[in-house]
Specification:
alpha+beta, Nuclear Transport Factor 2, Chain: A, 4-stranded antiparallel β-sheet, 5 helices, disordered N terminus
Length: about 150
Amino acid sequence: MRPARLLLTMTALLLSAAPTLAATPATTPPAAANTLARDAALKRGRQLVTWFYAQNLTPVWAAFLPTARAGFGGDLKVFQAYRANGVVTYGKELRLISEDVRVQDGVSYYLRTATFEKGPDVQWTVVFGLDSVGRVVEFGIIGAGEALPQQVS
């Protein structure tokens, strides 16, 4: 085979394989996939808590699935009153103690433990339970050291 013909044949093979290669997803090792999921949950949790602390509750509420909304009677106004009461009672976050993501039964729990200006010696943990696409399936604020949702380990 002549070099020019070989080059044309190889080029044709590569071009015909390109759509197949592009359409084949890269496989991600399980450990890397878990790290990516944890990183995504951490990023999403930070976004949600930022909105929550700023009392920008519409996007937080939009992320809540019915299971999370049920804790507030399915009513945004009840959720807004809950947050407003928290601001009056506890004030702003004073010091971040820890931030973590724990996974259990397909739910990624974003956990943020902090102290607040009106009770600097008491630690509280904000919990956002996130599904695989970042929607909130569970929400709560618990005293640090209290049992986490579903005893997350």
